[in-house]
User: Fold this.
Amino acid sequence: MKKIIFIAAISALLIFSCTDLKEIYPTQITEEQKNTLPANVVSQSLLNAVYEQFLLDYPNVAVHMCSLEAAGDQFYQRGGGDVNVFAMARHEYTATLGSSYIGLSWDSYNAMIFKTLSVLTSNPNPRQKAEARFLRAFFVFQLADMFNQVPLREPGEDLNKPAKVLKINQAIDFLVSELNAIIPDLPEKTAVTNANVANKDAARVLLMKLYLNKGAFLNRTTSPTFAGDDMAQVISIGQQLIGSGTYSLMDNYYDNFSRDNDTKSKEMIFSVDGRRVTGGDVSRRWRGVLHANSVPTAGNTWVAPGSILDLFDPNDVRLSYDYPGFTDKYGTKVGLLIGQQYGRNATTGAIEALKNGAGQNLIFTRNLIAPASIAASPEFAGVRPIKWVPDMKDDGTNADNRPCNNDLPIFRYADVMLMTAEALLRTGQTNSALLLVNQLRVKRKASALTSLTLNNLIDERGRELYWEGWRRNDLIRFGKFNLPNELRPWTSDAKYRIYPIAPTQLSANPNLVQNFGY
Assistant:
């Protein structure tokens, strides 16, 4: 056993300087290793454990899609499904739901923050320390966005005492200071072999997100504000990234979401490596969407309301596209699936019209049925977003028996362009903002806009970034989160802009205070 541990340790020592998560690193270490291995090897192993937990949790539908998308207007679970998804879609969640999907997000991000402490107390080198601090900052941002307060411990604190809790203004100050402090020690994006590793540009994009949302975070019950200094920061960082020459918009939009998007996409700034995950991987983005008779077969659960279709020009590839090497072989398009569906006959190999469970033509409809009776929605109800091109096995069958190769984008170059355009628009620089948005639209085969407003800018974000985890955040910032929509035909209370804290968490940490309205 000691020999195996020694070999693993030496392997880690030889490769730790190239922090590529597609390499095999030890992520568990013994007390003996802590005492005998070089500090940088111990720190790298502990850092990899944080990355591994991130890769397991973030692609999970319950942690990512439900908490970050279901409360918006582009994601739902047909046929009733989980009561928590229903409650989030209709803005009816309460503190008692804190132990379900909402609670899973709370527990996940807090657990990953706690894991970063092991790295920060292990005598890491400057880069290892900076990577751990970036990951911690990302988790703090998510908690601040969703819950308005963040439990946070510093290295060396007494673990027997409750963690201090940052209020939202304190969390913002912490993030600004932390991200600016670590950028010098993070690697350049061009120096890492893939976007799964924390890098300087990822920290810069997180700063953009923070400055852009700052006025929404600080004004939860009123209209968001957009201070000139904050917008100037967004513009400055965005123009730095745009002018760097490191990134470019893809000619094929779906190459950002294909099985080889880690090497093919020129838009990826920070992402989750799908192939590292078993069970909750990125394949849920199609396994939970397609019908059981589709190719590939799937669970027929996740849908988008029909109103999403109204955002798109007919020629926009983000609406519908025949992806080479997939659609021609299996019959299934990518984009937003509506109408008659097609698939490959498993016996003859021919592409033919698919049937539903009753033997009738499988025709997806835009309507989910009235919200009051959505639990009774039929198997064909709802638009089916297939944004991630399904990763089929080499023999053409479904990929249910292994993790898929598709990576999950977290920060993408197109988002940088849209955030920069938004800050420009909010500071009266409309022509510059319109130019950026039309550069994006031309690549997506959509007609150029003749003018730019906040209304058509949030629509552009909805077209470009649907199901990538930013819709709830965007709707709140644009003042549209509480307005009636297809699933909730009433104006909801402002309290739903943040989630409740579970009663069990309130009992465990007296420094937490239940969010307003719950």
